[in-house]
Amino acid sequence: MKLFLDTADIQEIRTVNAWGVLDGVTTNPTLFGKTQGMTYDEVIKLICGITKGPVSAEVVADDVEGMLKEGRHFAKLADNVYVKVPMSENGLEAMSRFRAEGIRTNCTLIFSANQGLLAAKAGASLLSPFVGRLDDINEEGMTVIRELVEIVTIHELETEVLTASVRHPRHVTDAALAGSHIATLPFKIFQQMASHPLTDKGIVQFKKDWEAARAAADASAKSGAAKKES
Ligand code: G3P
Q: Which of 83, 142, 198, 223 is 20 to 30 A off residue 96, Cα-Cα?
């Protein structure tokens, strides 16, 4: 499963990219709102300079022509830009026209397998069901991932399921087991995935044992040398 960072924070992107595990980035207007001092275009161009993987830039217009205008503009910023389009009747038309123009899209705000099926048929390259927000309303977000992955596989649809609205590391494991092609995660979840209290404890213990063993070896070498001298 490919792992994307769900952020517009350049430092976070540089950090996870340096770990060698970054396959792409998703942004949205909320995440862009947390950045300071740069335009959305500048942020997208910077991100595309860090990763060669897909970078999603989201349109905010809700009419077809407005979505097309914003999306065409994003697509010119870098070769790896994917235009993020919200699921809606207008969104479907925009995605279908983007496909005809060779512009790749990420259909966002998917909450059911049927919405995903429609987006796939309209030509979305990526389908983004939001698992956390479904869990928030007492539904089972992972069910949509399982169903959509199965539909895409059975019907050999040319698209990928991108698990979004990931809230904790268990979502990542479950998405991978469900066969999700991609999951996009906040930086904090990458950190949570990398850490385990037993790993931390083990590192401390190994260091302690190593120092004790080295001290014992030094002491025995010294006493050997002293015996030789006497
Ligand atoms: O990728 C979509 C994601 O940003 C939404 O996450 O936590 O706002 O539901 P959340």
A: 142
Rounded Cα–Cα distance for residues 156 and 164 (Å): 22
* Domain ranges within the chain, ordered by starting residue: 2-194, 196-230
pTM: 0.93
Q: Does residue 165 have its Cβ closer than 6 Å to ligand 1?
A: yes
Alpha carbon nearest to ligand 1 atom 9, residue: 165
What would the CATH number be for the domain defined by 2-194?
3.20.20.70
Number of helical (H) and strand (E) elements in the chain, helices listed first:
11, 8
* Contact call for residues 154 and 163 (beta carbons, < 8 A): no
Percent of the chain with pLDDT over 90: 92
Q: Verify whether residue 52 is a known catalytic residue.
A: no
Q: Which of 34, 111, 130, 172 to mutate to test the pocket of ligand 1 (most atoms within 8 A of CB)?
A: 130
